[in-house]
UniProtKB/TrEMBL annotation:
Entry keyword Secreted: no
The entry's keywords: Receptor
Protein's name in the database: Tripartite-type tricarboxylate transporter receptor subunit TctC
SUPFAM superfamilies: Periplasmic binding protein-like II (SSF53850)
InterPro entries associated with the record: BUG, Bug_dom1
Any Pfam family matching the protein: TctC
Provenance organism: Pseudorhodoferax soli
Protein family per UniProt: Belongs to the UPF0065 (bug) family.
Domain of life of the source: Bacteria
Length: 294
């Protein structure tokens, strides 16, 4: 059945203040205006995003709880975290909310202005440069060794539970670098809390060493497979209407997101399946876990 509650909850599996949180609050507000129903963001962080994902799977399959899912939480995390307890096939995509590039940021106090300045700094220090990332299952973590190889420097990976605490430490000079999704990273750079050194895609065009990590990450709305077509159709239209609102488009683009055309939404499910197959630890899409089959 379709959601019969007054409130639709959009679960963001990260703490408040990060890129996903900022994006989904804009989309939820626009969906509320478009449908005259309340779309409310709820942050459930922890476990590299897996706790929030598991929470959504535990809710009634009535379409009243939506997951703000991403390449990291739905594909990379279950491929690398044995205890995740879910796989990409446990969810069906409602639609894409946008794609984002990654920014390489430096602490404001770090005496560099470009990535090319880092080798000289590393030589003067004679020590590794500390680089923050939001978990070993993230695109950012996968990019660090490639970036280090291209610059011929040593990067010390420093894990965080989300981009918000990572940016706080970067602003305070507790770490040297961070690779951050564009929405949160662009705001931090504009506020002077970080220096923008480069867009990651400018440095990651190719990787001769093996599987190349994606240079952009997508995000979207997802629901468990058991949610009915009636509910998914209504949510899909709500998302389309939200992303057609001029004020939402402008706000999302200011954060650095590339928004999908309405006609391209039908391709999102195919992209989701392709990425799940590409990054799965074994051929094919990760099978639904028995605990989540309904």
């Amino acid at each position: 059945m379709a959601c019969d509650r007054d409130v639709v909850t959009v679960v963001v599996p990260y703490p408040a203040g990060g890129s996903m949180d900022s994006t989904m609050r804009i989309v939820a507000d626009a969906a509320s205006r478009a449908t005259q129903r309340s779309f409310v963001v709820r942050n459930i962080g922890g476990g590299a995003g897996t706790i929030g994902v598991q929470h959504v799977l535990q809710q009634p399959a009535d379409g009243c709880t939506v997951l703000a899912g991403s390449l990291t939480t739905l594909v990379l995390a279950p491929a690398q975290i044995a205890s995740a307890g879910y796989g990409p096939a446990d969810f069906q995509p409602i639609g894409e909310t946008g794609q984002t590039d990654y920014l390489v940021l430096a602490a404001p106090s770090l005496p560099v202005d470009r990535l090319q300045d880092l080798p000289a700094l590393a030589a003067r220090r004679q020590s590794a440069i500390a680089a923050g990332h939001p978990g070993t299952e993230s695109v950012q973590y996968l990019a660090l060794p490639i970036l280090a190889r291209q610059l011929q420097i040593e990067l010390l990976p420093v894990p965080y539970k989300g981009s918000a605490p990572m940016l706080n430490d970067l602003a305070g000079g507790h770490i040297d670098l961070a690779i951050v999704a564009s929405p949160a990273g662009a705001v931090a750079a504009e506020q002077g809390r970080a220096k923008l050194l480069a867009r990651l895609s400018e440095w990651m065009a190719s990787d001769a060493g093996g599987r190349t990590p994606p240079l952009e990450s997508w995000a979207g709305w997802f629901v468990p497979q058991a949610v009915s077509e009636r509910s998914t159709a209504w949510l899909r239209q709500a998302l389309l209407d939200a992303l057609a609102a001029p004020e939402a488009v402008q706000a999302l683009q200011r954060l650095g997101l590339t928004l999908p055309a309405a006609t391209a939404q039908q391709d999102f499910a195919q992209r989701y399946a392709r990425d799940a197959q590409r990054f799965s630890p074994r051929p094919g899409m990760v099978a639904p876990s028995p605990a989540h089959r309904r």
